[in-house]
Structures are given as structure tokens and as C-alpha cells.
Amino acid sequence: MNWPIGSISSSEMPKIPGKDSVGVRGPKSRNAVIVRLTVVLLVLFCISLIVGPVDISLGEIFSSIISGFRQDNGEFHNGMVFWFVRLPRCLLTVLVGAGLSVSGAVYQGLFRNPLVSPDILGVSAGATFGAALGLLLPGANLALIHVLAFFFEMVAVFMALAIAQFVAVRPLLVLVLAGFIVLSLFNSSITITKFLADPYNELPAIIFWIMGSMSRADWPAVITVGVVTLVGLVFFHILRYRLNVLSLGDLQSQYPLG
User: How many CB atoms lie under 10 A from the CB of residue 106?
Assistant: First the structure.
């Protein structure tokens, strides 16, 4: 049925299956959740600065922030640990978490499914294979590993899109299935890469890369990740309304908004 623009009111519009006004959170409820989660984040951030092999109290942290890590104040060692180990590590963890959360929200909106993840298109497996391949190359540095990881994750995305475009039947469902195909392909490639790797040097490096760690966090890494994350946040914030339209789905988007 075609609904001409402005011919019906919002009260006369047919009910959309699975969408009811009951249970929809209002602005005040959302703001309360955001405030609570922010408080939890700050508490966990402070705990992470204190807890560790080296005991650092909040007083020592404030003293280090005010006076720096001068050697004549008796807290030189704790100040060094705070400024060059724990603070960069905690900041990098927050930035990575922010980037992953926004990426996950965009994925869930595009696929209209709260359970999707970067594995849905084989992105994670493609990036892991690229990094593992970079670790196998002789003389490879960290920049080359990052480039290869980004290149192969884009290859995974385009492979999934190409398969979905080739089938051209129920593209959303086919895209998900194509993502699982690409995921299996790159997981098999990672297994082959592990088999070919040197078991004493290259294989442990690949395994530790897959596990992930913030132990090598430093200020250059914090600045780099911070810039990339900030650009991504601004980009998705600018396109937030278009992303909301994409997340409506075919059934809802066919009704006029008046």
C-alpha cells in the first residue's frame, strides 16, 4: 500500500512489528545511564593507576602531577612509573575501548542486529592475517605490520561485498553469510601462517599479537591512537543522522514522515 505524503497522522500509521513505544528510553533515562557509566569508568581508571606491582597512592599521584617526577622529592621512582607506564597504558586502553565501542555501534546499526561484531565481515580475521604475514616478512617493522593489517581487513570487506553483490538476493542476509565465508578463509590462512612460522621467534610473536596487550603503551602510541579515534568519532558524529536512517530497515523506511 502506498501512503501519500501528509495523508495520515502519526497516530494512524500502522504499527511496525517488533517496535512498540513501551520500553523506549527517554532522554533523561539515557543521560542517567551515561552519567553512571562515566562514573564507573573514572573509578576503574583511578584504580588502574593505583593497583600494580608498584604501590602508588592517590596522594603520590597528585604530588607527581603537581611537582613532576623530580628526584629530590623521594618519589622519583613512583613518578616515573605513573607518567611513563600506567598513565599511557590507561589512556590508551580508554581510547581503544572508545574506538571499538563506536565501531561496534555503527556495525550494529548498519546490520540492524545488536549481536554483530567486526567478525561479521571477516574484518578481524583479515587484519590478524595481515599482521601475521607482516611478522613473517624479514626485516618487517611495526609500520609495515599495521599497513598489512589494514590492507587485508579492507580486502576482507571488499570480498564479502563482492560475494553479496554477485548473488544479489536478499543482500543483507547474503552479506552476513559472505562474511562468515571470508572469516573462515582468513582463519585458515592464519593457521597456515602459524604452521610456516619459526616456532621459537615468529610463532610466539604472532600468538602474542593475536592475544593483544597494552604493556608497550607509550605517549607516541597514545597520541597516534587518540588522533585516529578522535577523527573517527567526529566523522561518525557528523553522519549520525544518515546512519540512523540506514538502521531503520526497509519496512520502516517505506512509511512517510509527513
Answer: 17
